[in-house]
Amino acid sequence: MILSHDDEGSGPAVVLLHSGVCDRRMWDDQVAALASSHRVIRPDLRGFGATPLPAERFSFAGDVVALLDHLQIERAAIVGSSFGGRVALEVAVTAGERVASLALLCPAFRGVPSTPRADAFDEEEDRLLTSGDVAGAVELNVSTWLGPEASAASRDLVRRMQAHAFEVQLAAEELDPGPEATRVDVDLALVSVPTLVVSGGLDLDHFQDIAQHVADSVAGARLEHLPWAAHLPSLERPSAINALLAEFLA
Fold first, then answer.
1. 231, 224 in Cβ contact below 8 A?
2. What's 5-249's CATH class?
3. For the chain, which end, N or C, has fewer CB atoms within 10 Å of the first or last residue's CB respectively?
4. CB 104 within 8 A of CB 218
5. Digit-coded pLDDT (tens) for 149-204
């Protein structure tokens, strides 16, 4: 199955991979800014937006490569937000010849120790979902991941995207066997393309630690720290992220 996606503009290809609380709609502002100079591809990953979860084992990175094959794109820059950043790194180490560069916005990454603040969020989200309070879990995510610069419209969009993701993923938990993604343990020493890592000064400390670790471990990586940003800077101050991406991708 090919991921549900949008394909706009012409020029060098850029793939935008959404965060785990969002879907491809999070990139509306970036598509508008980049499509005049790039071919911009934004998929919904499995279990998000318009792409359902499969009944069988699958690979997030493999899905992205299959989409590139489907669109006859040899190489692309990949921009990933949070969970999308983790998937971008998985593509870079499993199919590095398909990746021209990486821009990782507050990326997720396995292997960096968690922190009490991050653990407290996980525990509270689990408590709310276990008790059936999906609306409360949605609000927890909105308040945790968006900083004060986010507009009311951005908050409402994240609220709708997260609610849909919970709906799809909670339904999948009832399946036996349920869908399972192939685990990829990323060796950052294998990443050899130009890499931009963005960190938010208002993000959870765990994600700030991840950004620093990735920037320190990928040869030649550039770390851009944004004091005003929480975890989803492209939705908090879109114009700043548009300018940063345009400069990096030029």
1. no
2. alpha beta
3. C
4. no
5. 999 999 999 999 999 999 988 876 665 555 678 889 999 999 999 999 999 999 99
